[in-house]
Amino acid sequence: MLELEGVSAAYGAVRALDRVDLKVEAGEIVTLVGANGAGKTTLLMTICGRPRAISGSVRLRGQDITRLPTHRIAALGVAHAPEGRRIFARMSVRENLQLGARLAPAANLKTNLDSVLALFPRLGERIDQRGGTLSGGEQQMLAIGRALMAEPELLLLDEPSLGLAPLIVRQIFAAIARINRERGTAILLVEQNAHHALRLAHRGYVLATGRVVMEGPAAELAANADIQTAYLGKLSA
């Protein structure tokens, strides 16, 4: 589904990613864990074309998308629920979801809306409420739901548990598992909560200072004594 080979990215003179190799197979959940500043968010943004990789290649289903503009990458079936949710606060829940549906066939709007509301019933209860009035957990549900409205084959999730209460975190992770199981959507999950992420994922990568320093089946990574150190940002790159 997705393959990064030797991908580097930078902000001016600062290199944020350094020769990253990563794969996501069809129907797979892959998690990327690491400390703040490790380059996790930059990696997702580079997949989406901003910032653009300065070297290496990004391929989607074998097609090189490294130099494509973001809107064309999205049209190929990639949806991104960004860190911080970034919903449209003055728009209603319904309007946020409708906006996410612009890349899907118009005839599928009602079916996709019903599917998202079945996944997140709380959004149905607040369908005409402004997004900015929702709780943090509800806004995260809306951000994920908005991404799903585009019918993506690959879903990029950036820190979906950030700032949420433990009960809501469990609900969000249960929904992610359901998306993968019922829709077959491939998911690349960036998450600091290594415990939850590795329990959910099939495989994982550990990123430190822009480099992949560990990878493997999620269960093996979860059992590795160095994972806690890597999560705290003390693993040598």
Explain what the structure shows:
By secondary structure, the protein is α/β, with parallel strands linked by helices. It contains ten helices and ten strands. The chain has a domain at 1-48 and 158-178 and 189-237: 3-Layer(aba) Sandwich (Rossmann fold). The strands form two sheets. The protein has a six-stranded mixed β-sheet with strand order 6-7-8-3-9-10, sandwiched between helices. It has a four-stranded antiparallel β-sheet with strand order 2-1-4-5, covered by helices on one side. The longest helix is centred in the last third of the chain and has 18 residues, at 166-183. It is globular.
What is the fold-level CATH name, i.e. the topology of one domain?
Answer: Rossmann fold
Shape: globular
What class do helices, strands and sheet pairing give?
Answer: alpha/beta
Q: Assign the CATH superfamily of one domain.
A: P-loop containing nucleotide triphosphate hydrolases
Topology as H/E string? EEEHEEHEHHHHEHEHEEHH
* Gyration radius, rounded: 17 Å
CATH architecture of one domain: 3-Layer(aba) Sandwich
- What about the largest sheet? 6 strands, mixed
Binned, the helix content reads: 25-40%
Task: Give a quick rundown of the structure.
With 237 residues, the chain is α/β, with parallel strands linked by helices.
What is this structure's SSE topology?
Layout: E1 2-11, E2 14-24, E3 29-33, H1 40-47, E4 55-60, E5 63-64, H2 70-75, E6 78-81, H3 93-100, H4 109-119, H5 121-125, H6 136-148, E7 154-158, H7 166-183, E8 186-190, H8 194-200, E9 203-208, E10 211-217, H9 218-223, H10 227-231
